[in-house]
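dude i think i finally got it to work??
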Amino acid sequence: MKNLLLKGGWGNENAEKIAHFDIFSQTVTSDWFDPGWMFGVEDGFNIVIGNPPYIRQGKIKTLKPILHAQRYETFVSTADIYVYFYEKGYRLLKNFGILCFVSSNKWMKAKYGENLRRFLRKKTQIIKIIDFGGFPVFEQTVDTCIIICKKQTPLMDWNVKFANIPSSLESHQRAIDFIRENLGIIKQNKLSEQAYTLSDERVLRLKEKIEKPLRDWNLRIYFGIKTGYKEAFIIDTERRDEILKACKTEEEERKLTEELIKPVLRGRDIGRYCYKWAGLWIIIIPAGWTNSNRGR
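look at this
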């Protein structure tokens, strides 16, 4: 293949890249994707379907200057890489083409997703959003969503279909049935750039009623608890009991350890009128505790 490319006028560097590209690898990347000479597509694709990789922003430090130089409107230095796949997919579409992505749902509420929320709200006509929340779509623990949108300026009163999947559903088929039976509708212009809240008009009015005094008081809620490594700091009841059982003294060490392990609720554990605790605990180490208690 390399020799054929060289005979066709390709430079040695590009011929080398193309000839040695592993089309069967799901992790390999390339910088030479060209719809024109690869597929004969000059004006964009009719549809782009994808499941972009979930790679945290801390692991793509070397790519950030490249992404910034390519003038991505969705660029934020703290954004995970899948955010840029959304805009890349949009760029590859022809006008009125369809984008369909399965990805992490964090962009809908995280601060780093604000540019993406603005981009989709203003430049696409969103057809449907399915938020799976804590429902296990894949074996991985990433909370998932599906979005389908069209590359066109949204109509003034465009209705977006949506569904919020309960994490308590027992199977994928139950989730599919739930979507078919429980699609809601929200005006696209009601999707705030601050966060996409998929709810009916009544809930949105209540949300606005709560948020107004917060704005008047100049208060903003950014996020909940951030551990930095939840696999280490969020534990189940069995692990908590093991830790307490290993304490050498009942009065001192066990009592101190109990003070550091608190029950924790995740967003997925909170329902409309109540919560359902999943038996999880968080290890909380107060600032300065390590130094002041080093002797213990």
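The chain has twelve helices and nine strands.
im so relieved honestly
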